[in-house]
Each structure stands twice: as C-alpha cells, then as structure tokens.
Design goal:
Layout: H1 30-33, H2 37-52, H3 61-72, E1 79-82, H4 88-100, E2 106-110, H5 113-125, E3 132-136, H6 144-152, E4 156-161, H7 167-177, E5 181-190, H8 206-217, E6 222-226, E7 245-249
Parallel strand pairs: 1-2, 1-4, 2-3, 4-5
Antiparallel strand pairs: 5-7, 6-7
Helix pairs in contact: 3-4, 7-8
This protein binds S-adenosylmethionine.
C-alpha cells in the first residue's frame, strides 16, 4: 500500500505536479514524514476535501520545505502569515509549532471571511487552536503588528507574505511588516519570480517589482530572490517552484552583531 504522499503521484490535477511524472521523487518529503499518523490523516483529508471543493491555491513542497527548515531548524515561533487561503500552510506550520511546543506561534491573516472560517474549521479539527490564530483582515492594516506581538507575547520572527500578489499592496505590506521583524528575523515572499508577475491583476509588476524596489531601498538586509523555472514547467530548474521566493534577513545592529 502506498505511503503518505507517494499516493499523490497517481492523482490528476495541477496541485500534484511535485509528486508525479516520470522524474517524480519516489519518496515522502520530510515535511510530510515528520507528521504523526493522525496529523497526516488530517492533511490527507484536507487534500481530499479541497479537491472536491476546488480550493486549490496553496504553496507547494519546495516552499513549505524551505519554511520547515527555517522554522524547525531554528525552533522559531513568532510567525506572521499574510494570506492563508484554505489553510494548507497554516496546518503545516501549526504542526511544526506543536511539535516544538511553541504555543501562540502563528498569526495568520486573510482578507476573505469565508476562507478564514474554512481555515479555522481545519485548525480546530487538527486541535491546533493553541498554536494558531486566524485573523480576518487586510494584511496591510496598520493595526495588525501590535496584535501579532500581543498574541506571540514576544517579537515577530518570520513574516511570510503570500497574499494579493499585487505590486501596490505588496509595497504596503513590506512597509508595514519589515520594521517590526526582530533583528536576524526573516521576510519570506512567495511569487517573486518573473513568471509570477501574471498574478498581479493590476498589471503593475506584482511581488517581483515590489521586492526588487524594496531591496534597493534596504541594502543592509541579506537577501536572495530565488527563481524557479521560466514557466510553470516545474522540472526545469534546481528550485522547482516556478513562482519563486524572496528571502531577506533583517540586519542585527552593529553593537549586537557577532
Ligand atoms: C496564494 S493564497 C495563500 C496560500 C497559503 N499561503 C498557502 O500556502 O496555503 C493567497 C490568499 O491571499 C488572500 N489575500 C488577497 N488579498 C489579500 C489582502 N489584501 N489581505 C489579506 N489577504 C489577502 C486571498 O484571499 C488568498 O486566500
């Protein structure tokens, strides 16, 4: 009997590309193998239900694996997510936080009330309510950073932006959230590759233009814009998510730097 995500290789549909094809991985990625049987059961049920409801818009194995490395490799709580859609990354980050005992570790925001209700339902079903707060709001709302810090009872360590994909809104999110990231903390922006500019419905250059301009204005950050392949053909590049990801690390003030 196939184990965990190995069975995904047989499934049709655009969300299963990582698992299938002639050059499919043939192994369960660590982001799924670390889960308990019950947790994997939740993830599997989530995929089944969101397939039936056509709620497909989550990040994929390359990005959630990268986040797992940052979060679990460094035992990090204090995570803000802008844009949770149907709850995939919320559940996955919630399972990581629970394994590490980091209660009140994820403050996740989405502007769509029905998607917030849907995600909340899955958070409760996964018994992750002590670890995750689902907030319905525009992720560029200036009231949010204080609410996030209050929920964490400490600093914001990682901000993961995966929301509107529009240039102007992303500019506002960067201006709001970067100042509150703690020194040495991380900004992670999905969809920063040239390919992903098509997701900006305003046609103004999307996340890529926003992070490129932000980078020029913030040279003290360490930063990399990781590109996937030039198209949605995910098997061309080393980093296999064609949408790309921008990662920046906030500088540590000189007196504290080692
Ligand atoms: C690509 S999906 C997020 C996927 C999620 N990070 C995951 O991997 O499971 C983008 C989400 O951003 C939300 N969104 C769009 N504009 C927003 C805004 N202005 N503020 C907050 N959320 C927004 C959408 O409602 C949608 O659910």
């Amino acid at each position: 009997m196939p184990q965990r995500s190995l069975e995904f290789a047989q499934r049709e549909g655009r969300r299963y590309w990582w698992h299938g094809g002639q050059d499919g991985p043939g192994f369960v990625p660590p982001v799924y193998s670390f889960l308990t049987e019950d947790e994997w059961g939740i993830v599997n049920d989530w995929f089944d239900e969101t397939d039936r409801c056509d709620l497909i818009g989550e990040c994929q194995v390359p990005l959630i694996s990268l986040l797992q490395g940052l979060v679990m490799g460094n035992m990090v709580g204090g995570i803000v997510q802008a844009g949770h859609y149907a709850g995939y990354s919320t559940l996955m980050l919630g399972f990581m936080l629970r394994r590490m005992g980091r209660r009140h570790g994820l403050f996740t925001i989405d502007i769509d009330a029905s998607l917030c209700d849907y995600t909340r339902k899955w958070v409760e079903r996964a018994a992750l309510s002590d670890y995750v707060l689902v907030k319905c709001a525009d992720s560029s709302d200036p009231a949010l950073p204080d609410q996030a810090r209050e929920y964490f009872g400490g600093p914001v360590r990682i901000v993961f932006i995966d929301s509107s994909h529009t240039y102007e809104h992303t500019v506002r999110e960067l201006a709001l959230w970067c100042p509150v990231i703690t020194p040495s903390g991380f900004l992670v922006c999905h969809d920063s590759a040239p390919f992903a500019e098509i997701f900006d419905r305003t046609g103004k250059g999307g996340v890529r233009r926003a992070v490129t301009e932000w980078r020029q204005a913030n040279p003290a950050y360490e930063a990399i814009n990781i590109r996937g392949s030039a198209s949605h053909n995910h098997r061309e590049g080393v980093y296999q998510d064609g949408c790309g990801v921008f990662i920046a690390q906030k500088p540590v003030p000189a007196a504290n730097a080692s």
